[in-house]
């Protein structure tokens, strides 16, 4: 290669490197202008017990989390409901395969607040089969209706569990054996 071709290559590489650096600097500058903080709004009561057939559920740490731009005070994104659901099997002779659940929000007039994406799936391996006397925990992070953040707009949170009951039994098998050959 001639010296002029090598110089052109180096100039091109330098121009590409400078433009990439400039693009990154612009992104960093734009990204650093918005500092986001979390605003947490607890729900009362923060612990709720529910009973579904032979399963008992306990919702703990019920709270709403919003992302707020600290510079402007503007809410960024949608509010989210965060909680932990612990499901216990109170039966002596039934197991359950936990599939998932759904949260519904009820307004002060007793009507359902329309929302999408309020379902969740059980992700734990223990949810494959919840035997009698056992329990499993599941984190819940789902959208929360912005209209329900107003004072006295939310009356209750409804939890719907989806599971398959399974028979749980102990069985004995007798195997005949003989001594000798």
Give an overview in words.
The protein is an alpha+beta fold and 181 residues long. Helices cover 17% and strands 47% of the residues. The chain is built from 1 helix and 9 strands; from the N terminus they run αβββββββββ. The strands form 2 sheets. Strands 1, 2, 3, 4 and 8 form a 5-stranded antiparallel sheet that branches. Strands 5, 6, 7 and 9 form a 4-stranded antiparallel sheet that branches. β5 (94-107) and β6 form a beta hairpin. The chain is elongated and about 90 Å long.
Report a brief summary of the structure.
With 181 residues, the chain is of the alpha+beta class. The protein has one helix spanning 3-33, and strands spanning 36-42, 47-52, 55-69, 75-89, 94-107, 112-113, 119-121, 135-143, 154-167.
Q: How many distinct folded domains? A: 2
Spatial shape: elongated
Kindly state the mean pLDDT as a whole number? 79
- Poorly predicted spans: 1-31
Number of strand segments: 9
Number of separate helices: 1
Largest β-sheet summary: 5 strands, antiparallel
Oligomer category = single chain
Please bin the fraction of helical residues: 10-25%
């Amino acid at each position: 290669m001639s010296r002029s071709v090598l110089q052109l290559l180096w100039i091109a590489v330098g121009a590409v490197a400078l433009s990439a650096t400039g693009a990154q600097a612009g992104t960093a500058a734009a990204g650093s202008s918005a500092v986001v903080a979390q605003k947490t709004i607890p729900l009362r009561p923060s612990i709720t017990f529910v009973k579904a057939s032979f399963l008992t559920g306990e919702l703990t740490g019920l709270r709403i989390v919003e992302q707020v731009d600290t510079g402007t005070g503007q809410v960024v994104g949608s509010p989210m409901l965060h909680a932990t659901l612990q499901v216990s099997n109170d039966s002596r002779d039934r197991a359950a395969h936990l599939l998932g659940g759904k949260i519904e929000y009820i307004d002060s007039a007793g009507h359902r607040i329309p929302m999408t994406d309020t379902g969740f799936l059980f992700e734990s391996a223990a949810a494959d089969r919840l035997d009698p006397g056992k329990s499993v925990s599941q984190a819940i992070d789902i959208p929360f209706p912005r209209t329900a953040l107003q004072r006295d707009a939310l009356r209750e949170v409804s939890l719907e569990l989806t599971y398959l009951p399974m028979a749980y039994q102990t069985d004995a098998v007798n195997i005949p054996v003989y001594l000798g050959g």
